[in-house]
Fold:
Amino acid sequence: METHISWVFIASPLVFKIKKPLNLGFLDFSTLEKRHHFCQRELELNQRLAPEIYLDITPIYKTASGFSFEASGGAIVEYALKMKELPCGWFLNELLAKNLVGEKEINRVIARLHQFYESETPTPEIQEWGTPEKLKISTDENFTQAEPFVGKTISPAAFEAIRHFTNSFYAAKEKTIS
Structure:
């Protein structure tokens, strides 16, 4: 399977996810060191809610016969996030297609996430990123990155409406904070 930032190799009962070597501005996986770092971060973050799924980081070696998970004298050329394979039929898009997701299921997810976030103690750095000034940096960047798609995947009217409501939100928050 392929996403816009990863390749996912299914080797039942395991899955190996490799980050693509790219830099999209909002994420940078352009070097082996950066991909290793972000594999580690993904493992650390996701193990908090799904430790039985997110297992380890596995180096991939270049060998004379190709690629291997075994060192055997080869150099590390990539890292993969090693995960347990999830059973087919239980992904949200599949459950939605079968009309098996309702208010009860959504509320269960909300309750679990609420409990999780309430148990975390944010650092001052994380709290700073929740301020309107910091959020505006991200949304301004999003608008800049989305501009080439105006008229292609989003209408000019929709784009401007979203930008207007976003900027109106910040203006209203600025008045309440001042």
Remarks:
- The radius of gyration is 21 Å.
- The chain has three domains: 6-84, 87-120, 123-178.
